[in-house]
Design a protein that fits this description.
The protein has 5 helices and 6 strands. By secondary structure, it is of the alpha/beta class. It has one domain (about 5-149): Rossmann fold, CATH 3.40.50. Strands 3-2-1-4-5-6 form a 6-stranded mixed beta sheet, with helices on both faces. About 25% of the residues are buried.
Length: about 150
């Protein structure tokens, strides 16, 4: 089991939660981003810097993540690709994406993208606040408990 973090847009609080749990349980963590990511100096935590470009980090994660791994991402299309591959995906707000809910999430994402393009909706997701941080921590702990025994 390995934890992957789609790190370019991942909130620092989410990374810190993963690092703290990893310090206690020593599971491998890999951050993937197009800019260098600071990480604790532990041998089981690594960072991969990919070339700049649209979806380059996503492609790296899809190519390397395996069933049994968990990917932490805000990217719904990436989560859909991972689920098709049998890899678990968890949002930074604590939603575990599954075969049962990813289709709806993709539809909502596409609808919001179209609404923004037409000027009907402005802005993005709500701020990452203490409630979102706690939701992520709880969902991550549940996933670890279920998959680490």
């Amino acid at each position: 089991m390995k934890i992957w973090i789609d790190a370019d847009a991942c909130p620092r609080d989410v990374k810190d939660i993963v690092f703290k749990r990893s310090a206690k349980q020593r599971f491998p963590v890999t951050l993937v981003a197009n800019k260098l990511q600071p990480t604790p100096k532990w041998r089981w935590i690594t960072a991969v810097q990919v070339a700049h470009g649209l979806d380059v980090a996503d492609e790296h994660i899809v190519q390397h993540a395996q069933p049994g791994d968990l990917v932490i991402t805000q990217d719904v299309p990436l989560a859909a690709e991972l689920i098709d591959k049998g890899v678990a995906a968890l949002s930074v707000r604590g939603e575990l994406w599954t075969e049962a809910n990813i289709g709806e999430r993709l539809s909502v994402r596409d609808m919001m993208t179209e609404a923004r393009a037409m000027g009907m909706v402005t802005g993005g997701p709500p701020p990452f606040d203490a409630k979102a941080k706690q939701s992520f921590a709880n969902a991550f702990d549940r996933w670890l408990t279920k998959h680490r025994g």
